[in-house]
Predict the structure.
Amino acid sequence: MNISLNITETIQEWLIGMMPEGAASIVAMVAVALIYLIIFAVAGLYLVLLERRVAAWFQLRIGPNRVGPLGLLQTMADALKLVSKELTGTIKADKFLYNLAPYFVIVSSLMALAVFPFTKEFQAFDINIGIFFLIAISSVGVIGILLGGWSSNNKFALIGAMRSGVQTISYELSVGLSLLTMVVITGSLQLSEIVEVQKQGWLILQGHVPAIIAFMVYMIAGTAETNRAPFDMVEAESELGAGFHTEYSGMKFAYFFLAEFINMFIIAAVATTVFFGAWLSPFGITESIPWLGAFWFLGKTLVLVFLMMWFRWTFPRLRVDQLLTLEWKYLLPINLVNLVIMAIIVWLNLTIKF
Amino acid sequence: MSYFSNIYNGIKTLLTGMSVTGKYFLTSRKGAITQQYPDNRDTLKMFERFRGEVVMPHDENNEHQCTGCQKCELACPNGSIEIIWDRGIDETTGKKKKFIDKHIYHLGLCTMCGLCIEACPTDAIVWAPNFENSTYDRTQLTKVLNRPDSKVKAGIED
Amino acid sequence: METTVVKSNFKSEEYFINMGPQHPATHGVLRLLLTIDGEIIKRVEPDLGYIHRSIEKMCERDSYQQIVHLTDRMDYLSSHINNEAVCLTVENALQLEMPERVKVIRTILSELTRIASHTLWWGVMGMDVGALTTYFYGFRDRELINDIFEETCGARLTMNYNIPGGLMFDIHPNFVKRTKDFITHFKTKLPEYDTLLTGNVIFQKRTKGVGILTKEDAISFGASGPVGRASGYSCDVRKHHPYSAYDRVTFNEALKTEGDTFARYQVRIQEMWESISIIEQLIDNIPEGDVQVATNAVIKLPKGEYYQKVETARGELGVYVISTGTKNPYRVKFRSPGFSNLSLLNHIAVGGKIGDLVASMATLDLVIPDIDR
C-alpha cells in the first residue's frame, strides 16, 4: 500500500471512494480540522494540569488532586465552569474588537499546529515554507492581545497590551534569526525536509556550537514570545493584576488561557522539529515502528515544555526596559554573529554528520 | 570583555537558581508541606494550648466550677461574656450565695485574647481546641457555657 | 460616594491609575494614586484609611491589660513585639522590674517573630518581582515558627502572650527543643534563599540602583528599621536603647550604605542571621524563676506621660501613653514604623518604572493595618 506523506491525503483517498473529488477534499479538510481541534483543546487542558502539577512539585505542594483519579479531571471541570460562566464586559468597551480579540489569539495558535510533523505521516499540511509559516502565524496572536487590551477600556489592560506589543515585535527577531541559523544547515524551509536532513544526526549535533547557542537563544526568545515568566510583562500579576485579559471572563478568558498553553506547546514543538529531529528516535532505535514517532515527538516536546515551566517557577520577572536590553543588546547581536559562524561552518563543511 | 563575563555570570546564577528548584522538584513528593486538611481530620491534633473557643468543663455530676464572680466578664475587652446570675441559699451551709443562671459566651465577638481565662480564679473556663466554629447562622455563635441544671461544685469559693 | 481627585495638573501624555485598594502588590487595602507617563512614575500618592479601626481610640476605652490584645491587630506580623511594647510601657510606668526569665523569653520570642516576619517578607518580595516559588519556601519556614508560637502561646498570629507584669503563662516544655530544631533547620535553608533569589542576575538587575534613599532623606522622612539601616542610618532600637534582654546579647546591627532596594533586601537577610545568633545565645540558658510579677487586678498608671520604643520587624514602634491616674489611659498614640516608611514611597519611586515601584514597595515591607491602625 502506498502510504502518503501526510494525513490529509490519506483521509482524502479514503473519502474519494464515496463521493466526488471536490466534496471529498472539503470533507477531508473539515474532518482533519475537527480532529486537530479536539485533540489540541484536550491537550491544552492537560498542559494546564501539567503546569499546575509541576508548579506544585517545585513549590513543595501537592497540586490538584480532588477531581477524578489523581486530579486528572480538574481542568475539565475548570473548563466546564468557564463555559457556564457569564460573559462580562466593561461599559465603554469597544464591543466588536473586545469580542473579536480572543478568536485572533486562539485561531492563530491552532493554525500553527497544522504544520508539525508528529510522525512521518501524521502531518496535516506540509507546506514548503513551513518555518516561515510558523513565524508568521505566531505573530498574528499578538494582534489579539493588543486588541483585547485596547478595547477593554481598562488602563491596566492597555499597559499590558502595549508591553506585549513591544515584547513580541522585539523577540520575533530572535526567534526568526535563531531558526534561520538552522535553516542554513538544512537548506529548506519545509518541515518534512528538515526532518529528512536530521536522519544524519539531529541538527543540534550537526551544527554543534552555533546550534547550541541558537537553541539557547531560541528558548529564551520563545519563552518571551509566549509571554511566560520570566517575561510575563503582559500579565505581570504583581504590577498589572491580570494584564490584558483583566476584563475577560468565562469562555473568552478561557480562549486566552488555552492559547497561552498551546503557544507554549508550539514553541517547544518548533524546537523539537528544528533542533531535536522531530519524530526521529535517538540512533534510529524504533525506526521500524513508524507510529512511535508521535511518542518521540511528544516526549521531546514535553521535555522542552517542562524546561519552560522550570524557568517560570524559578526566575523573577524582568522589568520592561531590561527585557528590551536583553533582546537588543544581547540576543540580537549574538544571534547575528552566530548566523555568520553557522554559515562559515556549513561553507567549510564542518558540520558533524553520522 | 565585561560583556561576555556578564553573560557567563548571568547564565551561571540562573542555573544555580534552577538547581534549587530542581532539587525540590525531585524531592517534593515526600516533603510536601501541604496539610490535607479535611482529609486528615482524624489524625489532626491541635496543640494543647490552642485557643479555639472558651468552654466550661463539667464533671460527671453535671457540676462546674463557676461561682459567678464576673471577673471574666470584666476582663473581656469585647463584651463577649455575659453572666446572668442570681442569689440563692447554699444547701450545705445555709448561707446566701451567688450562683450563675447562664454563662453566655458570644463566640462571634471573641478575639481569643485569653484574658478571661487568665482572670478566672477557679479555673471554671478553659480553652478548647475546637476550631471548626463556622455556622450558617450567627445566633448559633452565642453559646451558653453552663449546661442546663448544672450546679457549682461544692467547696469552690472565689 | 466621594472620590479622591488628583489635584496635580496633568501634562500631556500623563494619565493616572488606581493601584489598589485591591491590588496584588499593595498587600492589603492600600490605594496608590499613580500619575504615569507611559511606564514611568511621575507621582505616587498613597490614600489611606481603608482598614482604619481606630485602635488608638479603643485603647482609651480599655484597661491596660486589654490594650495589649489590640496591638496584635496593628502589625500582625510582629504581634509579639507590639505586645511587648505596651507591656514595657506599663511596667516602666509602674517601675516593675521583670524577672530575668521573662526578659529572656520575651527576647527569644521577639526574635522568632522577627524571623517569621522576614521569611514572609522574603517570600512576598520574590513574588512581587515575579518569582512565585519563593513564597512557598518562605512560608515553609515560617510555619515552623508559627508551630512554636502555637504550642507555647496558643495562637499562631495574634498571640497576646505578654501581659503587663510578665507572661500569661510559662513556656511549653517543648519550646526549647522546638526552637533549637528550627534553628538547625533554618540554618540550612537560609543559604538557599541566597542561591535562589539573592544571586539571581534578574533579581539583582531588578533591585540594584532602584529606589535609592539617601541617609539624609531617610532621617528626614523618619525611616526606621531595615529601611533606615539600608541607607546607613544606624537606628536599631535594640542596640541604642536596649530593652528586655538585648543588653546581654552580642549582635551586629545590619548596616548598608547604598540605600537602594537591594541594600534593603540584604539588610533583612542579614537581620535573620543576627536573630538566629541572638536566639542561640539565649536559648540554652533561660533562667529559672517566675514568669509573672504580681500586679493589681486593676492597673492604674501614675499621672504622667510615658513613652517606650521597641524595634519591630519593620522598624521603630513607639507607644506613647498619657495617664490621668485612672484605670484607662487618657490618650494612647502608636508611632508605627509602616506609616513613616510609606511616606517616603513617593520620594523613591518617582522616575522609576511600574516594576520598580512594586520592587521598592516590597522592600518597604508595608503592613497596611500597621499604617492605618
